[in-house]
Amino acid sequence: MDQFYAGKYHFSLGEKAYAIGILNITTDSGGRFLTPEKAAGRALEMQEQGADMIDVGVQSARAGSTPLSPGEELERLLPVLMQLHGRLAIPLSVDTFYPQVAAEALKYGVSVLNDLNGFESAEMVAAAARSDCGCIVMHHRETKNDIITDVNQYFIEKMDILKCAGIQKERICFDPGIGFCKTQEQDLRLLGNVGRLRVPGCALLVAASRKRVIGAECGNPPYEQRLAGTVAAHSIAVADGADMVRAHDIPEAVQAAKIAFAIRMARTEQGRETAF
């Protein structure tokens, strides 16, 4: 059975579908988790709700937002990591594209680097290679070609680059980047063809929670009212082969992932019986 390794943690791929809890330390959440105490409390709450990993994000990914500097990211991030030290039984992931932030975060017990820029930076690759952390590599390029083929080729190219840097494929998790540099049609095609995106031996994450593709198909409700659409998208992705989903609403994400994975396994068994 393939594994995804992240520091001292490992995830058995094909055993279950895993839910990653989103912890946004940004004004996007109405500032609800901006203080270290509130952010840590939210992380512990998601752990209690069944999250398999917590992904902490300091930069807003929404269009028009003003980027934080590396120093500002660390100023907001490190107090939260210190609050959580020794209190979590699940891995912490940090969502950053700054190598210096990644390097500091790894010193504070972070087990996964989630780089929205897809480890384009040689410094980011080097920071990961110096550790035993897991690496979430997201596709973030515009393309006018077939989106499925483009994303799949990108993943294979990235795997080769990271392997050459000493990062084994068991430490790599690919993310097709729903909502990043893609049209609505491309997002829908990716969500409907997750199984075709798999790279053997690497984990596959789908992160569509509350995103534009969900809102656009549902009449653009407020972000907090996109739970049903998110569950639908993630369930289809898991049934088609996604190993992990990244979600804001953990109880619903965990329950949906269990059912979608069970259906996937039942379908696989049906195929085996038919083959014989």
Polypeptide structure, described:
This protein is α/β, with parallel strands linked by helices. It has helices spanning 36-48, 70-84, 99-107, 122-129, 147-164, 184-192, 212-217, 227-239, 250-275; strands at residues 3-6, 9-12, 18-24, 53-57, 92-95, 112-115, 134-138, 172-175, 203-206, 244-247. It contains 9 helices and 10 strands. Helix 3 links the parallel strand 5 (92-95) and strand 6 (112-115). Helix 3 (99-107) packs parallel to helix 4. The two termini are 22 Å apart. The protein is globular, with a radius of gyration of 18 Å. It has an 8-stranded parallel barrel with strand order 3-4-5-6-7-8-9-10, surrounded by 5 helices.
Short account of what is shown:
The protein is an alpha/beta fold and 276 residues long.
Order of helices and strands: EEEHEHEHEHEHEHEHHEH
The percentage of residues in β strands lies in 15-25%
Q: Describe the biggest sheet?
A: 8 strands, parallel, barrel
> Any idea what the radius of gyration is?
18 Å
- Give the total of beta strands: 10
Chain-averaged pLDDT: 93
Contiguous helical run count: 9
Identify the strand order in the major beta sheet: 3-4-5-6-7-8-9-10
By secondary-structure content and strand pairing, the structural class works out as alpha/beta
Q: For the terminal residues, how far apart are their CA atoms?
A: 22 Å
Oligomer: single chain
Apparent shape: globular
Low-confidence stretches: none
In helices, the fraction of residues equals: 40-55%
